[in-house]
Amino acid sequence: MSNVQIDTQHRRRFRKEKLLDLMSRWTFMFPAGFILIAMLAYPIVYTIDISFALIDLTTFRVAEWVGWDNYTYVLGDSRFWASLKVTAIYLALSLPIQMILGFGIAYLINVEWKGRGFVRALFLIPMVVAPVVAGGVWRMMLDPLYGLTNYLLGFVGLGPYDWLGDTWLAMWTIVIIDTWRWTPFIVLIATASILNLSKDIFEAASIDGANWWTKLWSISIPLLLPMIAATFIVRWLGAVKMFDIALSATGGGPGASTQVINLFIYEEAFRSLYFAEAAAMAVLVLVGTMMLTGVFLYGSRKLEDLY
């Protein structure tokens, strides 16, 4: 048998083994893929489908295809843009605060001091509290008449403040509640990241006479930048979905000052029964979120290349 024939047999065998390996992988992935398509892809496709139609509320079926009319209506609705503005303000306030607090607290609790284990466990409590419960409890604490917050502020000569009735304070209310609930999540990720940093670098810096601030600014932060970017993306995707805290704490008020986009979509669909228009809003928000996430992922890759 010639060398050419032997090489041909080897290539055929290699292609066959590769095909069998690929088929076996897809066989194992099929159940999870099927569930994923059923639970995620179908609702998305259905939402896109009804966003181009009028819905018959008696049967919840498509009554008429209207093309881009729903999108034209949504883009011309000032309330839609106002809710996007509210969402942007909420994101601009909450995300930087949560990132700074999360990594700052993680850096502090990883320093050797007595009782840090108890403090770490304490930070897990907000994560296990349901968002609706958290919003309701904070609503009672911030009540202007009998709330605990104004009562405690009174001891230092501050307040009382109308946390839920003032437009700007109401925004800060949902920012505070969201920060209280999600900062521990960032602390956990940051703690794991800090523990994975090489101790040799810090020991060498100590020998060279670097103080704690130099170590933090010149070593820790540059090494953690890729993880900070990745954590920001994860938290961004969660923050965009803000709904339950705003619903339970402020109800979108006063007026529409805390009516984030998801709360507005919910009210348009399930209270005003504008299902098609709400579907168009959801599609626009989905597309915008995907585009911004793509930009953040691109920036995250650039940071990984640099550091």
List the helices and strands and how they pair.
Layout: H1 3-50, E1 53-56, E2 61-65, H2 69-75, H3 78-109, H4 116-122, H5 125-128, H6 131-141, H7 148-154, H8 167-195, H9 199-207, H10 212-240, H11 244-249, H12 261-270, H13 275-306
Antiparallel strand pairs: 1-2
Helix pairs in contact: 1-13, 2-13, 3-8, 3-10, 8-10, 10-13, 12-13
CATH architecture field of the largest domain: Orthogonal Bundle
Write down the secondary-structure element order: HEEHHHHHHHHHHHH
- Strand line-up in the sheet with most strands: 1-2
Structural class: mainly alpha
The CATH class of the largest domain is: Mainly Alpha
Number of helices: 13
Q: Helix coverage percent of residues?
A: over 70%
- CATH topology of the largest domain, which one? MetI-like fold
Give the overall shape, derived from the CA principal axes: flat
Low-confidence runs (pLDDT<50, min 5 residues)? none
Average pLDDT figure: 85
Tell me the fraction of residues in β-strands, as a range.
under 5%
What's the alpha carbon Rg, rounded to whole Å?
A: 26 Å
What characterizes the major β-sheet? 2 strands, antiparallel
What count of structural domains? 2
What is the β-strand count?
A: 2
Terminus-to-terminus distance:
54 Å
What is the name of the CATH superfamily of the largest domain? MetI-like
